[in-house]
Specification:
The chain is an alpha/beta fold. Helix content is 40%, strand content 16%. The chain has helices at 13-24, 41-52, 67-74, 93-96, 98-119, 153-172, 194-204, 223-234, 272-283, 307-313, 321-336; strands spanning 4-8, 28-33, 57-61, 81-84, 123-129, 176-181, 184-185, 208-210, 217-218, 221-222, 259-264, 270-271, 289-291. The protein has a seven-stranded parallel sheet with strand order 3-2-1-4-5-6-11, sandwiched between helices. The protein has a two-stranded parallel sheet with strand order 7-10. It starts with a strand and ends with a helix. The structure holds nicotinamide-adenine-dinucleotide (NAD). The site of nicotinamide-adenine-dinucleotide (NAD) has 27 residues, from helix 1, helix 5 and strand 5. This is UDP-glucuronate 5-epimerase. Pfam families: Epimerase. Residues 5-237 form the NAD-dependent epimerase/dehydratase domain.
Amino acid sequence: MSKRVFITGTAGFIGFHLAKLLLAEGFTVLGYDGMSDYYDVNLKKRRTQLLLQNERFSFVEGQLEDNDFLRATIDPFEPDAIVHLAAQAGVRYSLENPRAYIESNVIGTFNIMEAARELAPEHLLMASTSSVYGANDVMPFNEREKTETPMTIYAATKKAGENMGHSYAHLWDIPTTMFRFFTVYGPWGRPDMALFKFTKGILEDTPIDIYNNGDMYRDFTYVEDLVKGIRLLIDTPPKRPETPADIPEGDSLSPVAPFRVVNIGNSDKVRLLDYIDAIETELGKPAIRNYMGMQTGDVPATWANADLLKNLTGYQPSTDIKVGVAKFVAWYRDYYQV
Ligand SMILES: NC(=O)c1ccc[n+]([C@@H]2O[C@H](COP(=O)([O-])OP(=O)(O)OC[C@H]3O[C@@H](n4cnc5c(N)ncnc54)[C@H](O)[C@@H]3O)[C@@H](O)[C@H]2O)c1
């Protein structure tokens, strides 16, 4: 029988791509998403319509915070795995509307964990972010480093999710994997993220804001690489070690719980100005550049050590930004007919 996966956030960028991949591999998927209006809801509707073309996909619109409704949806589905991606995302918006992050990312994540406690799936996988590395400056970031300097409430709520996940894995024996994603980009991407804003600005001849005068580095991860990593990790639930000797070298496995944290990144840091060059080249048109200072809460660089993902799954994301940007631009032109 086909494996049953409950995914939160399937109307979102990453959830859409993950559901698509799992459906193509024969999984049965139930998607749950509140269709928040943080960005254009039409994009979320279009993603959902596409997924609904597959008969093994079903979708329920609902909020994570509505626990009774969430449970009435997930309980009868009896998932083999739960992948929790729905969240209030975005670093900068967390300065404007911090409450949305507490509600979705703390209360919402707690409700998912409570469901997992009772439903006892084979594996609970939840999204965290490279933002939890905060002010850490030893690069590339590895999962065993301390992450105690979140710079925004977004990062703090995601770190809270990791900590809550650890406690539930320990108390209730729920095999739990937390992913730390690094700046994900690609077709069907988020309108609040750099690639989308830069492409739109260049095509519409409006200035693009370049923070820290472009002296920023990001480990840009192509979305199809990312969801491939997630898919492989679904089959790799952590086991509670019996002794410290059971923890393999370089693994972030908890000494007391079936719980690990895994970076999913390209292991390559790209300068923002080089990323913009790649977009300009692909569009055949220069940007009107508005150089600005560093934004409050932003970090100058992220860079993933992705050895653990490779050791666990044999897989390593590797799409070059030029290839990934070209795929995004092709999608953008087709979708918006420009
Ligand atoms: N895209 C990135 O670069 C990136 C980087 C690091 C971490 N992440 C994490 O990956 C996950 C997916 O991100 P994304 O880029 O696909 O974002 P997204 O905003 O496109 O998708 C998130 C989805 O969650 C839904 N949602 C939000 N709050 C909800 C709530 N309270 N109840 C029900 N649904 C709700 C939204 O409607 C949206 O469709 C998030 O947890 C995010 O924090 C993303």
